[in-house]
Write a structure and sequence with these properties.
By secondary structure, the protein is mostly beta strands. It has a single domain, classed as Lipoprotein localisation LolA/LolB/LppX (outer membrane lipoprotein receptor (LolB), chain A). Helix content is 11%, strand content 58%. The protein is built from 2 helices and 13 strands, in the order E-E-E-E-E-E-H-H-E-E-E-E-E-E-E. It is globular, with a radius of gyration of 16 Å.
C-alpha cells in the first residue's frame, strides 16, 4: 500500500507520503516522509515491526531506536507510555496475542483479550472495523483503539486508526 498519510497526534499534524509493506508472516515496514502544514517540522522515518520488535529509523535526525527505546521515544513525544508494538499489530490486523475468548457474531467476531474486550466487524467478506483495548495503560487515559478499513478490488484502500477520547488519528490512504 502506498499513498498519502496524515498523523494527528497531540499537537502535531503531519501530512506526507507513505509506503506500507506487510508480509504474510506478520512483519511490516512503514516508510513516511512529510511535514507539518506550514513545513515547520519535518519527518522522514522508517518504522518496522519484525517478530515482536518495533524499530524506528529517524532519517531526518540520523537516529535509530529499537524495542524499549521506541516505547520511550513515543512516550517522550506524547507524554503517553504504551504498548505501541502490539497496538501496531492490531492496526495491521495481524496477531491477537492474549485472546482469551472469541464469539461469532452476525457481522464478525467479538471476544476478550488479556487487556480487555475487542470486536472485529466484517462487510462484503473483508475486515471493515476493529475495536481494541487502549494500547496505553488505563491510568494514562481511558480510551479504545478503533481501526477502520476500506477496500477496493480486494486491496486495502484506506486504514484509519483512532484513539477517539485522546483525539489521536492516523490515516493511510492509497493512491
Amino acid at each position: 500500500m502506498r499513498g498519502r498519510a496524515t498523523f494527528d497526534v497531540e499537537s502535531y499534524r503531519l501530512r506526507g507520503r507513505f509506503v506500507l509493506k506487510a508480509s504474510a508472516d506478520g512483519d511490516a515496514v512503514l516508510e513516511f516522509g512529510g511535514a507539518t502544514l506550514l513545513g515547520g517540522h519535518r519527518e522522514d522515518v522508517v518504522v518496522s515491526l519484525v517478530d515482536d520488535t518495533l524499530r524506528v529509523l529517524d532519517r531526518e535526525r540520523g537516529r535509530y531506536y529499537e524495542g524499549d527505546q521506541v516505547e520511550r521515544l513515543v512516550a517522550s513525544g506524547t507524554r503517553t507510555p504504551g504498548a505501541w508494538g502490539p497496538g501496531l499489530r492490531r492496526v495491521l490486523a495481524d496477531g491477537c496475542a492474549g485472546v482469551e475468548s472469541v464469539r461469532s457474531r452476525e457481522h464478525g467476531l467479538e471476544g476478550q483479550a488479556a487487556d480487555g474486550p475487542f470486536e472485529l466487524k466484517v462487510a462484503s467478506g473483508r475486515l471493515s472495523e476493529a475495536i481494541w483495548p487502549n494500547p496505553a495503560p488505563e491510568d494514562t487515559f481511558g480510551d479504545r483503539l478503533e481501526v477502520r478499513y476500506r477496500w477496493r478490488n480486494g486491496a486495502p484502500q484506506e486504514i484509519e486508526a483512532l484513539l477517539p477520547t485522546r483525539g489521536w488519528r492516523v490515516r493511510l490512504e492509497a493512491d
